[in-house]
Amino acid sequence: MFRALVLGALIVAWIGAGLFGHDPWKPDEAYTFGLVYHILQSNDWLVPTLGGQPFVEKPPLFFWTAAFLANATEVFLPLHDAARLASAFYVAVTLLFTYLSAKDWCESPLAAPLILAGCLGYLQHAHQLITDNALMAGMAIGFYGLARTSGLAFGTGAGIAFLSKGLLGPGLLGISAIGLLLFREWRTRAYLRSVLVAMIAFLPWAVIWPLLLYRHSPALFNEWFWINNVGRFTGEAGLGGVLDHAHYAKALVWFAFPAWPLALWGLWHDRLRTPRVQFGLVTFIVMLAVLSFASSARTLYGLPLLMPLALLAAAGLESVPEWLARPLRILAVVGAGALGLALWLGWAALLAGVAPAIVESQSPGFAPILEPIAFGAALAITALWLFSGTLALPGRWLAGVTLVWGLAMTLWLPWLDHAKSYRGVIADMQRARPKGQCVTARDLTEPQRAMFHYFAGIRAGGPADCPLLLWHTPSIKPPAVGEGWELRWRGTRPGDTKEFFWLYERVRSVAALSWFDRRPGAGGDPVTRS
Predict the structure, then answer these.
(1) Strands 439-442 and 468-473, sheet pairing
(2) Digit-coded pLDDT (tens) for 268-277
(3) Residue 490 burial (C-beta neighbours within 10 Å; 0-12, 13-18, 19+)
(4) Rounded mean pLDDT, 74-82
(5) Structural domain that includes position 330
(6) β-strand pairing of 500-506 with 439-442
């Protein structure tokens, strides 16, 4: 009973740590919240819009969920914190269906979600306001449907994945379903029947919103479907991360730790004799191959790879030798303990005003104060880690991860937010901005567009005759703004050397402006992919 209580408290602490108490951070959180904020401000639930301009990079399911939860809880929480409840919801769904997939397949099915939560690559992203958490939930439900030959769950999971990030999720699930037919254990009438049911269950998710979007604007539908789905995968759209077909294979070494050593042992010991290992191996190979084949890669896109590895690792735990388990236990206890102690001592030094120069340089001007709620939460997380000594390996590992992450997201969160948030630099600009005057924004990136809209009400573009011009540059060199403008303010976030903002005020009439300032589209705001 005591172990169950500790495990339950650990899972709650792991999910909750980092969700609250900080502004949306760039790149993904900031622009995602901008899309949610548009829904809350305009009640437009059909077309994802960022800072006043359509932004149909992804379907809107996650934005809908975040807007609904933010609207329901804004009395108790700031809007951006309330919106992050969507991530908590989808992460909880992911862990639940990972457990259900492992149930009856593993001696300890709870090990699968514990290992998934303990993966180093999942830690940060699980607490961010990003659509990938809804994708993970859809994939987890789809995996459950495949594993249990439940067509309704398979189709529903594929649908959730589709309305979260487009074609990728259903594609991975569909190819995996075909790949499992390589093994005779999966070539059954029940399995084939479940696939047919899944196709029917998937249809409403795949048809309704795309059809409504097409009826609203064929151009926006084309941008979403062909450019942001097909074009992003093939590279024709010129969007996304770096071109590196070996990116995920290299990143998995740390990204999927500690799941991959246990998964490898499970494969070696089982030799593909059981459906659970066949399922885990096929789904992992399919996802790794498809993701690696894509024209662009980001570690974030590899999150679904962690689920089959967690299932394989849970199977491997049943026969794991001591020579493999012992180093993982030691690392979970000693490594987490050392890092946790360092975080406590470093925070105490910061509070006493004797922090190292590197800490000050990363967040210049930060003034630490003792925050009772964060301090109490840090103590509770530390106590949970101390009580975890009786837990098995997955529980101990999760306790160590929760300790380090929890201390960073309580004691050190104000320091992190001081440098990462746009709130301070925007407030500084607002003090220099004449009250009530409109602003034309130029060259703002997607996260910046979202945050200037949220904190200052500045939308992308703006009327060409606005008396104020806000310009972003990636270097400290002032922009070539042309004649007729006078610099009123400039600024950047603390410690930021890559983003600089300039606020100019018009000092001559529109008729007297140079051609540069009156040219068509001069007040526009080109989209830049983050």
Answers:
(1) parallel
(2) 999 889 999 9
(3) middle
(4) 95
(5) 323-420
(6) unpaired
pTM: 0.92
Range list of β-strands (E), 177-290 = none
Domains identified in the chain, total number = 3
pLDDT band for position 391 (50/70/90)? very high
Q: Are 427 and 414 members of one domain?
A: no
* Residue where one domain finishes, among candidates 320, 341, 356: 320
Residue type, 116: L
- The C-alpha atoms of residue 381 and residue 40 are separated, in whole angstroms, by 34
Burial 418-445 (b: 16+ CB within 10 A, else e): bbbbbbbbbebbeeebeeeeebbbbebb
pLDDT at 34 over 60: yes
pLDDT at residue 101 tops 70: yes
Residues 452, 426 contacting (CB under 8 angstroms): yes
With the CA atoms of 506, 509, 515 and 518 taken in that order, what torsion angle do they form, in degrees rounded to the nearest 10?
A: 80
pLDDT at res. 190: 95
372 with 409, same domain: the answer is yes
- Does residue 59 register a pLDDT over 60? yes
For residues 59 and 166, the answer to whether their CB atoms sit within 8 Å is: yes
What CA–CA distance (Å, rounded) separates 127 from 146? 27
Q: Are residues 94 and 75 both part of a single domain?
A: yes
Domain's final residue, options 420, 449, 471: 420
- Claim to verify: residue 81 and residue 179 sit in the same structural domain: yes
User: What angle, rounded to 10 degrees, do the helices at 85-102 and 2-16 form?
Assistant: 140
For residue 15, is it within any domain? no
pLDDT exceeds 70 at position 522: no
Tally of CB atoms within 10 A around 327: 12
Give the residue-averaged pLDDT of 42-48: 95
Q: Which residues contact 219 (CB under 8 A, 6 or more apart)?
A: none
pLDDT at 237: 63
